Amino acid sequence: FLEPKMVTSGGVIDQQELSEMPLFERYIVSEAHACAEASASALEDYSIGDAGTRAYRFFYDEFADWYVEVSKTRSAEDQEASQRALSYSFEVCLKLLHPFVPHVTEYLWQKLFNSDGADKALMTESYPSLEGQSLAQDAEAVALFNDWKELVRAMRNIRAEYNIEPAIKTGPTIICSDDALADVIRRETKALALLAKVDPERVTVVKSKSDAVIEDDAVQLVVSDGLEVFLPQQDLAKDVKKELDRLSTQLKKLVKDIGGLEGRLGNPGFADKAPADVVAATRASLEEKLEQKATLDASIAEL
Predict the structure, then answer these.
(1) 118-163 pLDDT, tens per residue?
(2) Continuous H helices in the chain
(3) Are 270 and 232 in contact (CB under 8 A)?
C-alpha cells in the first residue's frame, strides 16, 4: 500500500552542505542533528525513556507539525534542497525511533530507502550520531525559525479568539525590527499563508510603525520584542447573522438540557430516592449549564 516516494538520504549532511541550504531546511536538519546527539547521549547514559521521548518529540513537534507543512510551499529553486532535507530528516527519525518501534521503522525504511531490495536492514545502518563526531548545526537558523513560528502561533491564536472561519484570509501589517527575520517573513509568505491563513498579496512587512499605514481600529498583537502584527478590524469581523444562528442553536440545546435537569430534580422520586452523590452531581450539572446559558445570553445580546 505504500509506494516508494523517497530516494536515499544521500549520506550525512556536513557543515558545508548545510550552509548552502535555505533557512527552513537548515532549521530541520539542525534540529535532527541536535536530537540525534541528545538521544545518543541519553542512550549512553542508559536513559532509555529520555532517548525515546526526544525522538518522539522531534518527529511530531518539529518534523511533522512544522517542516512537513512548510515543505509543501517550497519554490522551484528550493525544491531540490527541500527534498534532500525532507528525506534526510525522515531517515534520521526512523533511525532514532528504531530501538523503540523496530517493526514499523524497518518496514518504512525498506519501502522508502531500500526500494531496490538490496540485502540490508535499518538495524545495521549507522546511528545518526557517532561517538567523537559532531553533526552540523546552524543555531542562527533554528533561532530565526523559532521566531517565525511564534509569529504563526500568534496569528493562529487571534483567529481562534475571534472565531474566524478558515476560508477568511487576513491582511496583516507586520512590524519587524530584525532585518534577518523580516527577510524570512517576506521570502516565506506562501508558508505564512498556509499556516496562518493570510492573504500573501496583502502581507506588509516594515521595520517600524511609522513606515506603514495602519488603521486606528486595527487589532495589535505583540509577538515579541521588536515583532508586532496589526490586523484590520474588518478581517476579524464576524458574520453576525451566522454567529447569531450558531449561538441560538447552542442556546436551544442548553435550554432543553436545563429543562431536563430541572424536571429530574423536581421529581420527588428522584430527589428522595436517588443516591446523594447522584443528586449532587445533577445539581452541579444544572448550575454549570445555567452559567453557560448566561454567557450565551450575554454574547447574543452583544451581537
Answers:
(1) 888 999 988 887 666 789 999 999 999 999 999 999 999 988 888 8
(2) 15-19, 23-44, 48-57, 68-71, 79-97, 102-113, 139-161, 179-187, 189-196, 233-236, 240-266, 268-273, 276-302
(3) no
